[in-house]
Amino acid sequence: MEKNQDIGCYSPGLAGIPVTKSAISSVDGTIGHLEYRGINIEELAEQSSFEETSFLLLYGHLPSQQELMEVHEKLRHHRRVKFRIRDMMKCFPESAHPMDSLQTTVAAMGMFYPLSHGDLTVEQIRSVCLNLISKLPTLVAAHARMRKGDDPIPPRDDLSHAANFLYMLTGNEPTLLMERIMDVALIVHAEHTLNASTFSTIVTASTLADPYTCISAAIGSLSGPLHGGANEDVLHMLDEIGTVDRVESYLHEKLAKKEKISGLGHRIYKTKDPRAVLLQELYVQLTQEMGEDPTYEIASRIEELSRSTLGAKGICPNVDFYSGIVYRKLGIPTDLFTPIFAVARVSGWLAHWKEQLGVSRIYRPTQIYTGEKGQAYIPMKER
Ligand SMILES: CC(C)(COP(=O)(O)OP(=O)(O)OC[C@H]1O[C@@H](n2cnc3c(N)ncnc32)[C@H](O)[C@@H]1OP(=O)(O)O)[C@@H](O)C(=O)NCCC(=O)NCCS
Questions:
Q1: What digits encode the pLDDT tens for the residues 220-249?
Q2: Which pTM does this prediction carry?
Q3: How is the chain split into domains, by residue range?
Q4: Which residues are known to be catalytic?
Q5: Span 230-329: which CATH code?
Q6: Cα angle, residue 55 at apex, residues 51 and 57 outer, rounded to 5°
Q7: Distance between Cα 260 and ligand 1 center (Å)
Q8: Which of 17, 234, 264 to mutate to test the pocket of ligand 1 (most atoms within 8 A of CB)?
Q9: Which ligand 1 atom lies nearest to the CA of residue 227?
Q10: In whole angstroms, how far apart are CA 28 and each of 228, 264, 267, 279, 314?
Q11: 148-187 pLDDT tens trace
Q12: Per-residue confidence at 68, pLDDT binned at 50, 70, 90?
């Protein structure tokens, strides 16, 4: 971080600069520990559900039996998407990336569910959060079907959030293990302090923009390959490598050219990301039901070989390293991996949006101007 009288504290990428106070989640990157509202992510992955975890993130405490029942009921109730929204999505180009479709559709939702500009009531806040959490899976699954010319599969009220999502994506009711694995994947992706997309949410929220606009901005941030898009890149990399015996030369070439290996490294974690540990365990469970997968061997070999070189610099597998392998095993196309991230992270984004409602200070950082000053305007004929 540069520090002098003219520029104050300048830290590219705002690394290490606190920009808000938040009670939603905390990370210890040196030991690889992540907590939502003070509860270890491993305990949530083992004992909670995505529905319950979303309540925890939004309201700061675990729900009572009654509260959890209400959340389940409301999330089921909001699953259906208006036909006008579906019709709008049908007009998107078939080649559209599902993240672009999702971002556009969520932005458009603000027109269908307008909110007044004054203070929102507790009920309005709850309703908008549940509406978005509930509808994102329907939107992702509907686009996945419509781009192939098929009608969307309507959501089912008798399935959990995770099972219904898999059902709408694949047309098949998932096994209990598949449902559990999707549920845990959603839990571990639901929140992660002030990453780029969450920062986009709170910057947009600070202008008092409506929540659909805030979540649309977050989805746009998540789409980039340095953030959510990395899990797609991991699978492309594993496919490009093709066989385990090619891993060593691939790594060698990449590192010699100073190129990054997808799915390794994290701004905060200097050890293996705890979410990568959980996702790797899930994958192993899946193989017991569905058989081995050669891509996993390639990924394990990358992890093993990079341990002594990159690992020594604190560059270790992040959440994206194993998530794609799990999703592929569940039969999900590669370009839906980042939208699934959004389906999970929307709970965290909304928790931050809700938290920021009490802050009312617009973000307005400063810059270090490096351009010319006092230049004369040159008329066109003299240029
Ligand atoms: C996530 C990421 C952007 C973090 O970036 P960062 O904290 O700003 O780290 P930097 O880019 O400053 O990297 C620090 C050093 O580690 C190296 N490094 C970081 N990630 C690397 C990777 N995946 N492969 C090889 N080298 C890597 C950098 O080249 C740099 O080396 P140098 O000190 O010799 O210049 C970065 O690790 C990355 O691009 N990873 C791959 C993409 C990815 O998986 N993203 C998902 C994150 S959840």
A1: 999 988 888 788 899 999 999 999 999 999
A2: 0.92
A3: 230-329
A4: 266, 320
A5: 1.10.230.10
A6: 115
A7: 6
A8: 264
A9: 46
A10: 21, 17, 12, 19, 14
A11: 999 999 999 999 999 999 999 999 999 999 999 999 999 9
A12: very high
